[in-house]
Amino acid sequence: MDDTDYKVDFMLEVSVRRLFFNPGRKEGLVFKIDEGQQHEIFMRPADYEDDPFGSHRMKCGIVISVSCSKDDYNFIENIIESVFTPFKGMPIYLPYIKDGVVKLDAEGKLTEGYKLPIEGYPKDVQDLIDEISVKMESRLNRFLKILRWSQDADSDAEPFEYPELYWKTRQEVYHYCGFHRNEGRASTIKGIVWDAEDSALAKTLWDEEHNEPLAHQLLREAKDSINKSMRSALLMTATSLEVGVKQHISHIAPQASWLAANMPTPPVHKLLRDAIPAMHALSGNPIEFWQSVKPLILVCGKLFEDRNSLAHAGKFDITFDKINSYIDTASDILYILDTLIGHEWARGMVSYETAQKLGWATKRKGFIVSVLSHDL
């Protein structure tokens, strides 16, 4: 047998958001991608007897068969049977004992209930899993979007969630493929603080008839959408900065408000870099700290490069963490612009890193929590 004879079958299964059959179709559908290789997509109601429409929950998946080397095939076949096959450069030793508990015995048998993270697999198997996951998610996503587009069917912007990858070799049923040791990073939720200073600030803003600026509202919409659609979050983050910069120009130079609202606008990062400090200097209020804002402006330039790649070429290869960093940068810039028009309290709303660069005191920005989902 050559390597092309060693086949591994993969199945990616997801939950579909707000996409259902009408009329009901309890048998679901099967779409053949490649008749020769028997690659196919399926979609069916999760509870087809009681809910043939799938309106409560719809399951969708894609099945693909791929070739691999003999060594990779043997490792996969054995790990499915809960047996670890030693390999050169493996990150653990047998028996593998953690916290006084045997996870793998001297023969490589996995303890019942223990799942070895994908990082414990050979590099070629890890690469195979990552490559096929991306390929299958892309194909499934494309099919669902073609389906809703061609039928004007209702669904969320991003049609599916909770992807789970399964595999088999000669087994009758699919088995869970495993999981990466993902590290989750997130800011803690920033709640309301209420003391005499906060009460006085709220009273001042109320009496002066202020409202939360539109730019800040749009940025919060970007934050809300990041878990549903990272593309929407990217576009909304860029829009929030465009709106914030235009409104700032209108505030410091009312005579330019019509131009800011109606004429083609230069790139936002160039307005931040050149126009805004120049306009403040002309008004007799030069910005002494603007040099320290330059790193944020550089990130802003990258944001608009990625926005333009998406909007004009449909290109999107940005990570969750990168969009979060763009949102943080946009928030800092908007609060800095607030400070420039007299809201001194806004100094305390920038991130700790930006506050350090500007020599400001920051408050109530929460913490970054980092959690590793699983250890080897």
Short description:
The protein is α+β, with helices and mostly antiparallel strands and 376 residues long.
Question: Secondary-structure blueprint of this entry?
Answer:
Elements: E1 7-16, E2 29-34, E3 39-45, E4 58-67, H1 70-80, E5 96-98, E6 101-104, H2 123-151, E7 160-168, E8 175-176, E9 183-187, H3 196-207, H4 214-225, H5 230-252, H6 257-262, H7 268-282, H8 294-313, H9 320-340, H10 352-358, E10 368-372
Would you mind describing this structure in some detail?
The chain has 10 helices and 10 strands. With 376 residues, it is of the alpha+beta class. The strands form 3 sheets. The chain has a 6-stranded antiparallel beta sheet with strand order 2-3-4-1-7-8, covered by helices on one side. The longest helix has 29 residues, at 123-151. The radius of gyration is 27 Å and the shape is elongated. 22% of the residues are buried.
